[in-house]
Write a structure and sequence with these properties.
329 residues, alpha/beta, 11 helices, binds D-malate
Length: 329
């Protein structure tokens, strides 16, 4: 080997060792600055509530602030695209609900692939929904609501958080089961949709208990039913939609935490450990119980637990959405 070639090879080897060392060092130091947790819906809504609740114990576990950032629009797909394209270094994380599984069927031109563009950190929380109306809406109970909607359907507004949001899916299910089409109004999250329900600008909204329980308890909205098959401990007097005649009506919203594809395994392990710590935090546990939201078993708060669930949910929703012929684009 000539001298020049040997020098070049040695220099390359040194650079490679140095590179690996730097990478190992930066992974060991992770996180050495604040971490962003991207929420795909507006501030104040249910996803945002969960993100801000767990950001506090996650910050404690990571030793760095976890900053919640809202990137809204297109049923969560704008935020998912942003995270899929972010640097895979652990500083951009993503929390999303089952919209991650319905998006591939709902959006024919999706600019991310939930199964190829992300690393999986773990499942987060399972949340039931409630069917609500503005406080002064004429129907006093669910039976009166059905009668009222049958004659006034098109004049009644039903808010949602955009195509592919769970409020949208819940509303579609409700309309198809009662056989009435309502005037649907999209928002950038059920946070702003709820503001308009409270202000009387829209009539109905199907939304998660992480936002709705305190408002129902304070009598600020009218509630017609819960979307779980059994009554909720937080709202024992509120009947299920199933028991009021909508047989099998069940919507439970699962959530997961993701990072961009290629985020190093040691970094993912630290984030997963922080998520697990957050889900065992006494304050988080108590608050979620008050909101009738379930913490998944520990084995599901894991990369494999989330990935397996996401794959199964994509397979479950694709034929349902195709059959219904609903497309967001
Ligand atoms: C939100 O956080 O605004 C909701 O989760 C949106 C939705 O209904 O999917």
């Amino acid at each position: 080997m000539n001298f020049k070639l040997k020098t070049l090879l040695l220099a390359c080897a040194a650079a490679a060792t140095l590179g690996a060392g730097t990478q190992a060092f930066s992974q060991a130091a992770f996180p050495d600055k604040p971490v962003s947790l991207v929420v795909p819906f507006a501030a104040g809504g249910p996803t945002d509530v969960v993100a801000r609740m767990i950001a506090i114990p996650m910050s404690k576990a990571l030793g760095q602030t976890v900053l919640v950032e809202n990137t809204v629009g297109a049923g969560g797909t704008i935020a998912a695209t942003r995270v899929a394209r972010a640097a895979p270094n652990g500083y951009t994380l993503f929390i999303h609900h089952m919209g991650m599984a319905t998006a591939p069927a709902l959006y024919r031109k999706l600019s991310f692939d939930p199964l190829k563009d992300f690393e999986y950190i773990g499942q987060v929380v399972d949340v039931p929904m409630t069917l609500l109306a503005r406080k002064d809406f004429p129907a006093a109970n669910f039976s009166e609501l059905q009668t009222y909607l049958k004659t006034n359907g098109k004049n009644v507004s039903l808010a949602n958080a955009g195509l592919g949001a769970v409020s949208h899916l819940c509303g579609l299910l409700f309309m198809s089961q009662i056989g009435v089409e309502l005037n649907t109004i999209p928002y950038k999250g059920t946070g702003p949709a709820m503001n308009d329900l409270l202000g009387g600008q829209v009539d109905l909204l199907c939304d998660q208990t992480t936002q709705t329980v305190p408002l129902i308890k304070d009598g600020r909205v009218k509630v017609y039913g819960v979307t779980s098959l059994n009554r909720l401990s937080a709202l024992p007097d509120v009947p299920t939609l199933n028991e009021q005649g909508l047989k099998g009506f069940e919507v439970k919203v699962w959530h997961g935490m993701y990072a961009p594809k290629g985020t190093p395994a040691p970094v993912l392990e630290k984030i997963n450990a922080a998520l697990r710590a957050a889900m065992q935090d006494p304050m988080v546990k108590q608050r979620l119980a008050e909101l009738s939201s379930d913490i998944p078993p520990m084995e599901k708060i894991s990369p494999a637990g989330l990935k397996t669930h996401l794959e199964a949910e994509i397979t479950k929703w694709a034929p349902v959405i195709k059959k219904a012929g609903i497309y967001a684009d």
